[in-house]
Amino acid sequence: MNISGSKATVIRRGDYQAPSYQVSEIALDVRLDPDNTEVHTRLQLHRIAPEPVAELHLDGESLELLGLQRDGQALAESAYRLTEGGLLLLNPPEAFILESRVRIHPRANTALSGLYHAGGQFLTQCEAEGFRRITYYLDRPDCLARFTVTLHAPQDSCPVLLANGNCMATGVEEGGWHWARWEDPYPKPAYLFAMVAGDLAVVRDRYRTASGREVALEIYVAERDTGACAQAMDSLKHAMRWDEEVYGREYDLNRYMIVATDSFNMGAMENKGLNIFNAKYVLASPETATDSDYQGIESVIAHEYFHNWTGNRVTLRDWFQLSLKEGLTVFRDQEFSADQNSRGVQRIGDVRRLRAAQFPEDAGPLAHPVRPDAYSEINNFYTATVYEKGAELVRMMHTLLGNVPFRKGMDLYFERHDGHAVTIEDFIAAMEDANQRDLSGFRRWYGQAGTPVVRATGSYDPARHSYTLTLHQETPATPGQPVKEAVPIPVRMALLNTQGQRVPLEVVGGASETVLLLEQSEQSWNFANLPGPVIPSLLRGFSAPVRLQDSLDDDAHGFLARHDDDPFNRWESMQDLAVKALLAAVADSSVAPLPITLRNAVAATLADRQVDPAFCAELLTLPGEDYIGEQMPVVAVEAIHRARDGMMRAIGRHFAKEWTGLYHDLAAAYQRDGLSIGRRRLRNLALAYLIAGEGNSREGAILHARQQYIQADNMTDRLAAFQLLAQHRHHDAEDVILDFYQRWHEYPLVIDKWFAIQAAAPYPKTLRQVEHLLVHPAFDWRVPNRVRAVLGAFAANPTVFHAADGSGYTFFAEQIRRLDDINPQTAARLATPLSRWQRYDAPRQQAMVTALKILAGKPGLSRDLAEVIQRSHPE
Ligand code: B3K
Ligand code: ZN
Predict the structure, then answer these.
(1) Which residue owns the Cα nearest ligand 1 atom 5?
(2) What Pfam families would the database entry show (predicted)?
């Protein structure tokens, strides 16, 4: 039992059983109507189990059964049984054709899983288990079948009818309806099925594959958005080229379609040949999208495209293997983005995300291995652990093997498993077999939750001219896994001399960088014949997803912050200096001073004209409040906020002249290249520091911000100014908020930003403001982007969500309760910040647990939310 008083069915990895039947062909015939859609399904089934079975289970959920036939005959009532989760066929013959007719209700489907009708369009989302909400089926990833689908719809409301694969025929029928038949030549699991119908415009382009085949590229959007698809189209073509060049993988159909919608539960979906995307990752124009929106489009378009090989051609045996496609595909999209942009800045961003989302997850009650052992709702496992930590595991194998051997492993993986549903084990085995390497330690990484802590100690022996490095690893216990084993940890490292140059390492034939493999709980290495004293640069490029305690003092970090030639480590040293100063300020409840080492490092960075502006902005951005909280035994909410604010002010004030100089020097007309993006970022950071500072420069900066807000020729600059003006107490904040809404109210993606920025303002009155936002005419509970803009931003607002009186939690729980009736998947995901209650002081703990209990007591609690609550507070 749990605090929600129910016991949900738990699915366990160890219970996997191969299906007893397979479907060779599935033909769907769908008459689309927002209120009553009829789906006629014809399945060709045959037994693959060696012996006859007493019953065959077909999944089905929220379906109204209208008729069932077997081999052309109505099925006798004694031959089947309807169950809670679907349909049982009793004593099925060895091979047969099953026809079913069901009715479903797309408009009422606010869960946005299965077939739904939103914004005038019919759309589907079948991963993970949405197909069973369309028809009775073997809705499991190891059931691969050839799909044909015929869509019927009124011609005026739905001139466009799309599904996976190739369009084979179209026609008109009575009453102003028309139809289209699509066939996908590649057998696929049902989670990759998609269909779309609506009034959509299309932006077309072409791509010629390496072997010379022409592929039609089509992006479907609302008519008025056709001018905002260039970034998506370019990114798609770049991704297609990259996968050919780096992995030798070509696209395999004649047509690649992308559909954009405002109503989507996540970022995008890789349905075979017909990706469906959250409009946020498709639409961009300089006036409406920020630089980071552009980068988001590039990476998500690439991610979904890369799934065509890692996920679709080679798919999953069961959902426990989710990271086999997600971790691997995230690794691929990260590498793609690193090749398109700056590798160092990309890595810093990836690690920032990992630490912001995955480390906390791994340290709390929702911790789970990259390959989980059990779930009750699989949609709850599309987590930072499965995605981001999963990508890190692939990256570590890549680091250990090297580029060419890794590619050999990938080739073998595709060669062996193309067209099959496989496991993480199969992936590791391909890497091992292609290279005669033993990677068995990685099986532990996949099975063990928790973030390893690596402690490094080192000493230089002047008499022997040698440096000894000792590394120790330990993984803290996680729920259900009290005892942890050592895992293989690749530690990329170099030794720097006092001039900041890497010294040759004799043990690796004079190379100046190497990868140490820490496999036991403790190991030591000795570097002999060094030219003089050295400072170690460890875990370069963040070569493993661990917490490193490097036992270096501030002087060493200050040195690395200025001299390390590894961009990640240079950034990391800067962060370490800032975190240390901030923690000291938190400990004595003071405003953070600006310690001399940090001040010198900031000064050196500001003076360094060589450094790329995007990287410079990374170096000068202070760690976020959440990250600082992560470094403390109990998160001191207000003290952290005060300390970080204080440090912003100190850096703003101390370097006011430099910031002002940068702000003016970096002004430029809008361009989209990497250098211009970096310059904008640094310039807006300068503005933020000036506004954080005090006195004249602050007043001047507010004027600059207002001017920038009005005159900006792009959304990056306009939004940066808007955020500073809207989130800082000053007299015309409200006018600016009103003005922004009036300018952009016709652009939902921009209005999401407007909602989010208000919900993120760090003042007590924000709670009231958020109450108003929830009843604003533009707020819509059925649109996940909008709900996330308000409630997601609210829950990420440290001082307001975690207000000492518990008001933030109570309010939040009430909203999640409401959302759960509309969209359980989004409700469950948004609720996860409450799982972190153990990290706070006693009164907050109590208030958070009470909030969880309020949710647990909700009548009709969804399985999604019930699982999150139960795991968050198991007693
Ligand atoms: N595979 C989808 C995510 C599906 C989430 C289902 N709840 C998008 C992606 O990772 O590419
Ligand atoms: Zn994915």
Answers:
(1) 127
(2) DUF3458, DUF3458_C, Peptidase_M1, Peptidase_M1_N
